[in-house]
Amino acid sequence: MGGGIKIIEQNSNGAIAWRIWSNGFIEQWLTPSDTLLRGTESMNKTFTFPKPFSDTSYALVGVGILVDGTGRQFVDKEATGFRTRSDATNTGTGGWYACGF
Description:
five-stranded antiparallel sheet, mainly beta, 1 helix, three-stranded antiparallel sheet, 101 residues, single chain, 4% helix
């Protein structure tokens, strides 16, 4: 019987996909969606992870779209998900990837 770390769960709820590894490592990411890629629908959004992390020390990489001039996007992380806030009217979230334990 082979050893090593393996994927023990892989699934999607339509909006968010995830993989869980045998060592407890979790990967989650936003799946492509026309609604989220249009811009204004993805402003000031809350994303809830299907598989919560143990704390907020997970890594989060995001893609901002339609960043308007000096617009900024802020992120508030929780173990169960995160919220984005923008200070410009044309700033949205085009995608993200989160990983950790």
